[in-house]
Amino acid sequence: MPSLLENKLVARIVLWVLLLVRGFLNIANKVLSFDYRNNKKYIFLSITIAYAAMIFYLSSRSDIQIPTHIFKVPLMYAIQDFLEGAGIYFVTDLVEYAYLHKDKVAHMFLYFGLGIFLHMTFRHSDNPVMSKYAAPFAFIVGILYGISDEIHQTYVPGRTGSVDDVFANGLGLLLAQIILLSLILWGLQERRKRKNEKESTD
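The structure corresponding to this sequence follows.
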């Protein structure tokens, strides 16, 4: 016969398991019932803040090393020989520049991502001015963050601030805005085209 203490312990474990299951079900219900369409501004704002925090964390590390082994894979040499044989030297020149300036390329790609998230955050803002001019707002805020990040790096042992890094950040931000605006314009043209086709068939 199990003792009274053993019964109490089993009952308590069962109760905790049931409470845990109920908690998970409540979380799942909130996730499933969350109105993503009407809360995009909060979603993009959260992603942007998390992404900016990741950049801040990377800038706080003095032991960051950019992997270069990918450039030494035999396939890369084969691609280089093929491109040079075809007379497409500008691609190999770009790859060589990227290899020699790996940190600048890393900055450009990091801020390209930040530029996309900033743009989407401003585009879904309740402020009509910010929403309309999402691209310039994203670029300005991204540049200011990049400058503050370079200042922050001057206080990290083994890291230094650089105007060239700010330029690379700006290039990444600018490319993000150009690509997003191009996609938006293309989408508007396609929508107008489909509308015209629908009207002509009617």
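The chain has a mean pLDDT of 79.
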